[in-house]
Amino acid sequence: MPVRDEGTRTADRRVRLQGRPVDSYPVLPPEVERGAVRRITVVGEEVLARPCREVTEFGSPELSALIDDMFLTMHVADGAGLAANQVGVDLRLFVYDCPDDNGIRHVGHIVNPVLDTPGPGSRRLVDDSEGCLSVPGATMVVSRTDHAVVRGSDKDGNPLVIEGTGYFARCLQHETDHLSGHTYLDRLSRRDRKDALRQMEDRREAVFARRASKAADMSR
After folding, report:
1. Rounded distance, CA 149 to CA 43, Å?
2. Cα-flanking dihedrals φ and ψ of residue 198, to 5°?
3. What pLDDT is recorded for position 123?
4. Pairing between β-strand 105-115 and β-strand 15-17 as defined by DSSP bridges
5. Which whole number is the average pLDDT over 35-42?
């Protein structure tokens, strides 16, 4: 999911790391410094269209390296969230660095996430513009609830509960959808889906060029 406002990433005190407030946090998470850029999959690739496998081995160097790579890949693509199948790995895992509507920055990862299902009428639906790093260059209006709770684990198997409102709630729902084999295109009418795919065809090369330029800058 793309960043809505890159200016929200600041080294200030309004940050929640893995769901908990921290005194301060750098603009670039430490995972970015350790990671390697991976190719982002594009809608139409099979790995994006099937449910991901549960993570069963925690605390491994391989899982830590995947998270590091995902953080760097997300930042190179100006993303607010990135699911593992968006880098071609069919595991239930996503990373995020996303603001909510109150200006609080949320940073972290979650393994084997399960989105709480709201009761009837318990959460308000909001129509807002949404994009996807795997649908490069396209944005469409999508309905999401204004509050979301995701339950899962961190990379060491410790339980996590991540709660979000506003744009961060949208991010949590968007990334959890990915792990079930869905993109936001699946929530659109046939007409709107065709419009989004046309946008992608028109803009994807410019998006790829920006990502390549940013990756080159960060490697210097």
Report:
1. 26
2. -65, -45
3. 73
4. parallel
5. 97
* pLDDT reading at 36 higher than 80: yes
Number of structural domains (the chain) is: 1
Beta-bridge mates of residue 96? 81, 108
Residue type, 21: P
Query: Is 96:106 a contact under the CB 8 Å cutoff?
Result: yes
Q: Over the chain, what is the mean pLDDT?
A: 94
Task: CATH number of the domain at 12, please.
Answer: 3.90.45.10
**Which two tokens mark 92?**
């239930």
Kindly report the pTM of this predicted structure: 0.94
By the 10 Å C-beta count (0-12 exposed, 13-18 middle, 19+ buried), 203 is classed as: middle
Boundaries of domain holding 160: 6-218
φ, ψ of residue 90 to 5 degrees: the values are -90, 65
Distance between CA atoms of 50 and 63, rounded to whole angstroms? 21
Q: What are 51's strand-pairing partners?
A: none
Catalytic site residue from 62, 130, 175, 205: 175
Structure tokens at 6: 């890159």
Beta-bridge mates of residue 127: 143
At residue 12, the pLDDT reads 56
Active site residue 33: no
